Amino acid sequence: MRKLAMLGGGFIGRFYTDSIQGYRNKDKVVSIYARREETATQFAKDYNVKHWTTDMEEAIAHPEVEVVCVALPNNLHEQAVLLCCKHKKAVICTKPLARNAAEAKRMLEAVEKAGIFAGYLEDLVYTPKHIKAHESVMNGALGRILWAKSRETHPGPHSNWFWDMEQAGGGCMLDLGCHCVEIARSYIGKDIRPVEVMCWADTQVKPIDAEDHGIALVKYENGAIGQFEVSWTFRGGMDLRDEVMGTEGTIWINSFLRTGFEMFTTGKGADYVAEKAESNTGWLFPVGDEMNELGYNHMFMDMFDAIEEGREAKETFYDGYVVNCILDACYKSAKTKQWEPVQLDIWRGKTGVTKDGHLVEYDADHYLVKEEMTHYGAKKLILKEKATGKFIERVEK
Amino acid sequence: MRKLAMLGGGFIGRFYTDSIQGYRNKDKVVSIYARREETATQFAKDYNVKHWTTDMEEAIAHPEVEVVCVALPNNLHEQAVLLCCKHKKAVICTKPLARNAAEAKRMLEAVEKAGIFAGYLEDLVYTPKHIKAHESVMNGALGRILWAKSRETHPGPHSNWFWDMEQAGGGCMLDLGCHCVEIARSYIGKDIRPVEVMCWADTQVKPIDAEDHGIALVKYENGAIGQFEVSWTFRGGMDLRDEVMGTEGTIWINSFLRTGFEMFTTGKGADYVAEKAESNTGWLFPVGDEMNELGYNHMFMDMFDAIEEGREAKETFYDGYVVNCILDACYKSAKTKQWEPVQLDIWRGKTGVTKDGHLVEYDADHYLVKEEMTHYGAKKLILKEKATGKFIERVEK
Amino acid sequence: MRKLAMLGGGFIGRFYTDSIQGYRNKDKVVSIYARREETATQFAKDYNVKHWTTDMEEAIAHPEVEVVCVALPNNLHEQAVLLCCKHKKAVICTKPLARNAAEAKRMLEAVEKAGIFAGYLEDLVYTPKHIKAHESVMNGALGRILWAKSRETHPGPHSNWFWDMEQAGGGCMLDLGCHCVEIARSYIGKDIRPVEVMCWADTQVKPIDAEDHGIALVKYENGAIGQFEVSWTFRGGMDLRDEVMGTEGTIWINSFLRTGFEMFTTGKGADYVAEKAESNTGWLFPVGDEMNELGYNHMFMDMFDAIEEGREAKETFYDGYVVNCILDACYKSAKTKQWEPVQLDIWRGKTGVTKDGHLVEYDADHYLVKEEMTHYGAKKLILKEKATGKFIERVEK
Amino acid sequence: MRKLAMLGGGFIGRFYTDSIQGYRNKDKVVSIYARREETATQFAKDYNVKHWTTDMEEAIAHPEVEVVCVALPNNLHEQAVLLCCKHKKAVICTKPLARNAAEAKRMLEAVEKAGIFAGYLEDLVYTPKHIKAHESVMNGALGRILWAKSRETHPGPHSNWFWDMEQAGGGCMLDLGCHCVEIARSYIGKDIRPVEVMCWADTQVKPIDAEDHGIALVKYENGAIGQFEVSWTFRGGMDLRDEVMGTEGTIWINSFLRTGFEMFTTGKGADYVAEKAESNTGWLFPVGDEMNELGYNHMFMDMFDAIEEGREAKETFYDGYVVNCILDACYKSAKTKQWEPVQLDIWRGKTGVTKDGHLVEYDADHYLVKEEMTHYGAKKLILKEKATGKFIERVEK
């Protein structure tokens, strides 16, 4: 059983606590910190939390607290983490880890110096679909991974601080792109170095300084491409999809709008309001169990099991740091309008990986271009002659 | 924290235990009974169970055991439940409750006389999708429910006892139809009396005495229709779908083959074997988290919470008994080739409900048949003249 | 090039003409008959038709007319067909052929006696998806067909005559069930005799005498089951789906609501009205090319090609007659509440077909019940001992 | 009725002819040219073509020929078009128009100088789904278009010349990207100038010099983004999808792998080979009517109708030229690793369009950031204070 302090009583703090205290779990939030007293007391009441405070350090230092969960606006993460270091409390921090790589690096170095457990709450690599898909990829079901793409678009976040550059540190790329970057990294291999990025970002619709739409390509040392598409201007609900392409297979995951639950309602029967949907009549696509489908349950299980087993979590501050480095390069590329290198002062994965080859040997004289079954049941080959470079067709019976 | 005896160490006993002991749960299996010693010892080892036995009563009577989970072939349910009565242990029993209504009735009367908690493990009304859909239906999002249909078809069960009439008590209708009947009941209203059934069943493919394919309609007192389609001969995996139709809306749920997870693999990359799938190459449709998606987690949560709160579970032996009564009528109808009444010696829901009316008043002189928006934006009405019975069209601008 | 008279200028007459005169076709409507002059003249203008009339026989007898297309309410089909016989004009008649089997039989005998071409306009066995699926079934891709199910449900027809028993002859079963019956017949084999039916029908919502919801099972001589589900009370648009189950495979076809075209609109941008949809905001599911997807194009191609090649169409009056015989039995069964034989005075298919066997030989001593791949890669068999009837498990490595 | 010469008797020439001579069409191929005699004679026999030749000019000059259809490898387009100019024959040319912009420009100028009809055979903006979606977009159902994305990926083309840089002029970007570019252009507006592009391309799998995978962003003068994703290394069949995002809505189109036709087959029943699929067992996703779904029918209808009505086709050589200009910029960007301007020597659309604004007025003091319905039914607003730039939340009841 883990006892937690929750820092932040807003949307995400509540979502986290629903997961942590949900089902038949052993874990419990014992202290809640919020900036406003009314938020703290309401939270304490709703979740049966013994201790509440508007003093962040008080919550962290609370003697019963073993683990601190940071669910605050981005600009407050560093401060919270440094206090955890001071009080030697295990810390788990919401995404993105920081507003930029410099901040993330300081946080990473601080927790390592303090020797505390530091987990990164990247829920979307803990969704049941991702876990199973990732396992298949690791088993080789898709062959060599060529392209891993992740997309999160919706009509914009719920709270006002997200829209403010100073507090948030960026727009939809920082808010949503951090998920997508880590999803792609996890399929391509977290030990493969991200080398450079190409990014477009724009403010197309919202009256804000930050970007409300962004697309980026992240090139890895082995030649694989990670891609993200994020937006705060999408209409139709929350679109959350991943696509992975390998030499031997493909994975398509839809985590929200098409998960096998479809409802039509005229709205005459009742004033039904669907969660995160943009309408409450017509065809609606609810998700059965958001907490589980969005990965919260399996994420906290990994965090608390890791603490109890004395091991690192699957997602650590180091991962959060790498994500921030990639996003920094994205923001730079969006301005310079060219590929920008990913600056990784700290790199703990493989080095010197080379691009995978694309010459598939067919026989001594030919490379294999393609093999297909024709309509009349014969096998048709397209081969490249090594000597001449010519492409020939051959039909085998 | 609940301490359980698990009766049965086969496929379903293991699935149950995975759910009960999974995630960060507080509950624990402390005794395992299996008919064969090797099954019991293997189970005890795999799930870290302290006590094992091949004597059913020993497991039930074990002093640490608070709750007994019956995960045995159908013909052993009654015996197990009677032993729980004798030892005054809470009991939760897998589906179907019994092989027929007579057996179910004896079990129901026994647990009520003994005054023990008796939960019915009908997982499919606990799936996250069902829970959310059911809530919408209760809120009126679909208006009056007209038709609730459930379908479970797959290529047949894993264990040999299912195929044997004596042990199983029936074929796919008893095995799968019990789910479907309760799903439909839950949408239509568990307090609405099932009145009569019409059923077709046949042995089309398998060398067995029981039916391997069955379809039935269950008529409820308010005129609503429950329908099930079950088969052990379906090719393509496990098809698990529900469809609900109301006067104001529609719900479609797909719990297995199309849940937003799609994978193609040539099979060259790895020897991947997908769960319950019929192939390991080509397009595959895995489910992310079967335990959660199939309702096991929420079902056991309800059971244990109910025990702790001193209330009944959402699904009780009474529900299991009603399901058996409906299935008995189905088997009879399949033989007599006519509608057969559902014989319910015990009925605890509403009585004297009448069929809902179908005359929608438009104005003093007309009933409303249909209202639609035409392509050119006008509202078109079809009305029935009360006096003459004639149908007229009227266009409003 | 064919020259046609179109009888009926309503919704379906216009749809037919759109298809006949559409694309780069050679065929042309040269005469239009409608009961009301304004309908006839408007039609003539819209489709550039030279001759119009409110006298049915005049259109049929028109010297330029080679083919007569009957697109009239059900109660006028027989009269129209008899006039075609009198004037020896080829006739193609919309579905259902007649209001009942007696009427259909008279029409069938009349056209055969007159020796004229008589095609039955059952468009849904001409949809591109059906044509391709049917070909796969005929090639054996699904093995032996066990169950063919078709469903058509929507919020009710556009014109008032459909709702009137006298003109229509029935409700949604006659209107929509005729499609479903022929779809199932075509998968099971049009030469296999439909033997008996079991049907439920009710008026659940609409203020009409006819049924607005019906479900039926049609048993064929070889043991296969055809099923239909039809309703005029469905909410959410037009649901048009088929499902075929065979010993070696499965086919699922969705012809309307989920065809790979999805649109969300807030409705703020424009007053968009989607065809046949029930709403014009939120998620909408249009069909790209209704004329082609619903089979009209391929149906008329077959009709006119057949006339030019001097052969029968794929769908003839005989097929329409068989459908009416099956529907008659459905209506009867809905009243008597038992299986009713299909009375077929004229049967031109196979006779004496017996039910397919279900004993699959494994070896001299066993039948094969099931073969599956286990998670650990071994092949698991369930066998039935011929001598004892016992079911055993066997694992092969 | 149009009489055609078909230049090229390969895969695409046959596909075109199937469409042109299909259904009940009036048009006819009267002369076939192929480079190899056996191809020409076989084609002439299969399609009942009176005249065949291995001399390109002979086919074009044939007195009966009114329209010449160019279905040749890319490197032969210019030569064929110049011969059409010489003989003043209407010409319709397969995609891409040319191997690069310079070639395309010469062809465009030649046909305009010759005064002949010149249609560009970009079938994918003629698919029924595209036509209907495009109509909705033009009607404003999606508001202002922000992002139009198109994706075509499959396991590589059938014929050997595609793989050869000299004949093809490029890899999958030229082969498939040309479709995607025109689809995006058509949603964003063909009169809106494409300004600059950012592109990644690589040869990841195939032993070829050309790219087998490419992704590009095309920025338009109004700030909208066109995107394409193309690959010859995708596994799982032919993936053909478009996604359009506007301020008021979303469109998702799937033209191949998920169109409402799903089939599972064990393969035991028959040696079924599905078209373009990568497997012939397991779950397969056929398309009902490729000719119609891929736009061929509506494309040729537009071409021939245009010729008869003396107007331009919807897709002209000018469109093909713009596409080549965009693709040239893509190839350049893939090398220079930065955004590259689209060089359009000829531009016939709007000029001086400015980026659409993103400041949505709420009231005199605020911009509107977001409006959403909360779970408890209230309307929540996020506003930006014009004076301070601060973001505030406001709940309306």
Automatic annotation (TrEMBL), chains A, B, C, D:
Pfam families from the UniProt entry: GFO_IDH_MocA (PF01408), GFO_IDH_MocA_C3 (PF22725)
SUPFAM superfamilies reported in the protein's UniProt record: Glyceraldehyde-3-phosphate dehydrogenase-like, C-terminal domain (SSF55347), NAD(P)-binding Rossmann-fold domains (SSF51735)
Keyword terms, alphabetized: Oxidoreductase
Domain of life the protein comes from: Bacteria
Domain Gfo/Idh/MocA-like oxidoreductase N-terminal residue range list: 3-115
PANTHER family for the chain: BCDNA.GH03377
Protein name (database record): Gfo/Idh/MocA family oxidoreductase
